[in-house]
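Batch manifest line 373
LIGAND: uridine-5'-diphosphate
JOB: complex structure
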Amino acid sequence: MKKYDVLVIGAGLYGAVYAREMADQGKMVHVIDKRPSVGGNVYTEEVEGIQVHKYGAHIFHTNDREVWEYVNKYAEFNRFTNSPVANYKGELYSLPFNMYTFNKMWGVVTPQEAAARIEEQRREAGITEPKNLEEQAISLVGTDIYEKLIKGYTQKQWGRECRDLPAFIIKRLPVRLTFDNNYFNALFQGIPIGGYTKMVENILDHVSIEITLNTDYLEDRERWNGEAERVVYTGPIDAYFDYRLGNLEYRSVRFENELLDMPNFQGNAAVNYTDAETPWTRIIEHKWFEFGRDAEGNDLPRTVISREYSSEWKPGDEPYYPVNDEKNGQLYQEYKKLADAEDKVIFGGRLGEYKYYDMDQVIAAALKKVREK
Ligand code: UDP
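JOB STATUS: finished
ARTIFACT:
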């Protein structure tokens, strides 16, 4: 008899949901994480009364009612709606691409005029079947918007030319011929009141779940594997196999956080800097994720901002985004064959499956996996 039924590596969303579901089924679960806290990259930390998204901004959004009901068991959500602003060399545009954006860009007033502009620019570019992100972007919104709001931002974000990136990345963003600047096409949206860390702590709060932090599984994996019947691994898949087929590439993000002695720095949670020259991709002002804050600072006179700098991952950095190009896709498939041959181990989450998952997709994937095994 082993000490635990399941060993979960990584206390991010995938690991936490898997652990909780197993514990609810009466299994004994051990969760280990190398960081000093749970939450993975959704981790939030309170600074001067503001929940700071330490590993990048996370806005929960989903069309999946089951997932929405699931997270609402563990947190109360506010009614935050994401509507970022793009700053292109001092010109401000509404995101995602909607009638406010088209009006500012071209002076058009009606949806018909906007559609005609896009169609004209698409025709001039001669794109029929978009084969990469650049062609996809131009065919969705035309050349002007591509040049000002997509090209520079995407190249900074991914460190690659738009022509060398897959089309699906830009299909994440809606294009609307309405005056609707809600970034997500989602039925349900919000941010957990009190922060994501609290939500993940609540998910993991079960008598049959034991948590060990500050512990790197890969440094002593034989010992940990000996403890449990089954292992769920949510770290980078290539690291698990000691990079034996070569490194998968990731994008990393560096944050420069500042506490400012003013109540309102930019008037919005997210401002994207979409030109190629500004070194950061976006600035997050965390207090605006919390609905009900006062712009005059009557409730909180100070504010916390984070500038995000995107970089190529190298050993020692935190991996954030899998790089979705062909080369990495193929290498992942080779790692996946190794993973499938490990009968005791399940690989899950953004890093374990090398997949550009959103939070709701991670939760749905974990719930599905629980039901399979
Ligand atoms: N994007 C862009 N301009 C923007 C915002 C997004 O070109 O102002 C593109 C960019 O290629 C990015 C993709 O859309 O990688 C997806 O953006 P999303 O906001 O979904 O990325 P995330 O929040 O996951 O970093």
